[in-house]
Design a protein that fits this description.
This protein has 171 residues and is mainly alpha-helical. The protein has 5 helices and no strands. The chain binds fe (ii) ion. The site of fe (ii) ion has 6 residues, from helix 1 and helix 2.
């Protein structure tokens, strides 16, 4: 790695870029884990609260998988900035403040769908590069996380439909 004029190091190789992206993914999951804790409090529907609790547990396991990925490639787990997830979090917080409490579930579900789509894109990219780097054990760990996100997105969309139908009746 070469130092630039500001004294920061530059990512120079595909492997370094992979490690950098892995660090951004770790920040993403840590942020999501924290975010889910807040959303459990804000959700109205008990079934939604339960689903959020379940995905929070899955997220904790995903974080453990990411630590294992770092270990597999002989690196210390190091977070890198992930402004995308911060943006999704900020938008959700703003929407929750702007809307009446009875609309919390609709706001939460919209934020969850955006989060899952982002997470899926991140894992798909990491998996392609882990494959290219010939890291099969890493691919398996990342694949496990990807499948959980895909399953969660399906659950979020089902819950969104149910919530929209329920509020449609009230409207
Ligand atoms: Fe996740």
């Amino acid at each position: 790695m070469l130092d630039d004029m500001l004294g920061r190091t530059k990512v120079e190789s595909p492997k370094e870029l992979f490690i950098h992206n892995l660090g951004a993914c770790l920040t993403m999951e840590n942020t999501v884990e924290e975010m889910l804790g807040k959303l459990i409090e804000e959700a109205n529907d008990s079934e939604l609260k339960q689903k959020l609790r379940h995905h929070r547990e899955e997220t904790q396991a995903q974080i453990r998988n990411l630590h294992q990925v770092f270990q597999s490639i002989g690196e210390e787990p190091k977070e890198q900035p992930c402004p995308a997830i911060e943006g999704i979090e900020k938008e959700g917080e703003t929407s929750l403040r702007l809307t009446a409490d009875e609309l919390n579930d609709a706001v939460i579900l919209a934020g969850c769908a955006e989060t899952e789509h982002h997470e899926i894109a991140v894992y798909e990219n990491l998996i392609v590069h882990a494959n290219a780097l010939g890291q099969e054990d890493v691919v398996a760990l990342l694949q496990e996380n990807l499948e959980q996100e895909q399953h969660t997105l399906g659950e979020v969309l089902k819950a969104t439909l149910k919530d929209a139908q329920r509020s449609g009746v009230k409207a």
